[in-house]
Design goal:
globular, 7-stranded mixed beta sheet, 11 helices, alpha/beta
């Protein structure tokens, strides 16, 4: 696998050293139980990450989103955020250990309706970086859901190949890198009656300016456009970490207008997705990635 990757991309010494470091971390974490590895990495990130540059960005975003909270309250949110992200990092490297752990996932009241919806004629599932979003493929696999997704390719081709290899079995429709006709592949997959999962909370430089926490944020309108044009449901979903390795699965169907003005329909549906995301994040701000560049 790695030899095929190296034919397409130059593998440098730096790439190899970084890859060796990742494998070392994986080996250390695999020597622990899943619960211990998650807790240990959460503790490490809680202690180290607040000293790094992204802490400043996270605090800036939190001040703008929650002007009614003081810095002590906001700092506490960042500590819990880093803890969750550290846990997510460890759990993602050990994602296969969740394969038969259905008891870790608790379905909300909308799950049965959601399941019927997505298995009836296909669906676009739009999610955000909440709880441990990396577990979506596992849950889909456990329920026999045929899922495809798109991801941002990692700069290190060896690490990228390793990460994809760990997840391929859980995504029957493939894991497609952005670009390389990923959008067309996802549309074809949905058109066949399957499910495409897309992260919708990251900044999209060429996206629609949609209000998010009171400020315009460039937003990916692709999920809404696919749902609208293919006449399939658009469903927002997320993971909420209860404590440790326990998660709630939360879903909410988005009302997609279908008028003669397709661009207006897509904009309204995208705004509705972001409004749901904001509602969820306000309820559990500690579970979202405040340190990434969501706004211009």
């Amino acid at each position: 696998m790695f030899n095929r990757s190296s034919k397409r991309e130059t593998v440098t010494l730096s790439h190899r050293l970084e890859y060796a470091g990742v494998l070392l971390v994986v080996a250390i974490l695999r020597a622990m139980s899943l619960a211990m590895a998650s807790s240990f990495m959460g503790w490490c990130w809680r202690k180290i990450a607040p000293r790094l540059s992204r802490q400043k960005r996270a605090m800036t975003h939190l001040r703008q989103a929650f002007p009614e909270k003081n810095d002590e309250e906001l700092h506490a949110i960042t500590l819990d955020m880093w803890d969750n992200l550290g846990r997510t990092f460890a759990e993602s490297l050990l994602v296969d250990r969740f394969e038969k752990a259905a008891e870790n996932f608790h379905k909300d009241a909308n799950f049965d309706a959601f399941y019927e919806t997505i298995t009836a004629k296909g669906c676009v599932l739009v999610s955000l970086h909440s709880g441990n979003w990396e577990l979506g493929g596992i849950v889909a696999h456990q329920h026999g859901v045929r899922l495809a997704t798109v991801y941002q390719k990692l700069k290190n081709p060896l690490v990228n190949a390793y990460v994809i290899e760990q997840r391929t079995a859980f995504f029957k429709g493939g894991i497609h890198a952005k670009g390389n006709r990923a959008g067309a592949k996802l549309m074809a997959w949905v058109r066949e009656g399957n499910i495409a999962a897309i992260m919708g909370d990251l900044r999209d430089r060429g996206g629609l300016p949609v209000e998010f926490f009171g400020r315009p944020a460039p937003t990916n309108a692709f999920p809404a456009r696919v749902a609208r044009n293919l006449n399939v449901p658009l469903v927002a979903g997320r993971f909420v970490r209860r404590e440790g390795l326990e998660f709630d699965l939360v879903f909410e169907e988005i009302d997609v207008p279908r008028t003669q003005d397709s661009d207006a329909d897509v904009k309204i549906a995208t705004e509705r997705v972001q409004a749901v995301f904001e509602k969820w994040i306000r309820a559990r701000p500690d579970q979202w990635m405040w340190a990434h560049k969501r706004w211009d």
